[in-house]
Amino acid sequence: MKLQNQDIKVGKTIDELVEGETFSLSETIKNRDILLYLGLTNDDNPLYLQYDYIKELGLTKPVVPTALIFGIITSTINKHLPGPGSHVVNVNLNLIEKIFRNDLLSFNFEIIKIDTNKDLVTINIEIVRNDERVADAIVLVQPPLPESELG
Hints:
The protein has a domain at 10-29 and 63-144: Hotdog Thioesterase (Thiol Ester Dehydrase, Chain A, Roll), CATH 3.10.129.10. It is built from three helices and seven strands.
């Protein structure tokens, strides 16, 4: 698609998506990611960084802020499924287990419903660490508009 004389890559429109379509990726949240989050948000929760506090709780590593998990989910939707031009309109994120710094996480996305009347797709996300589900989410997304509907 051309927009202002530039090539713009957009994701799949609602008519190009299929129920059952999947996308998966693996991510490791490192200390620098947590530090960037804390700096950007001015969040000073000791659970994310202070080892003395973490040890008092019987934990061995800092916990990953929920917002970082949310960010990986929305970023993946905006980059891959449906892709650029998508708009996340609702998220229900359920953390089953704590997620720790340096955990290798698998994010598995699946389109479970397409509602062409409302121009929304429902994406189920399962987040797995060492073959154990640690979180899941349901996300409502408005896919990119077709080129014919752009002003």
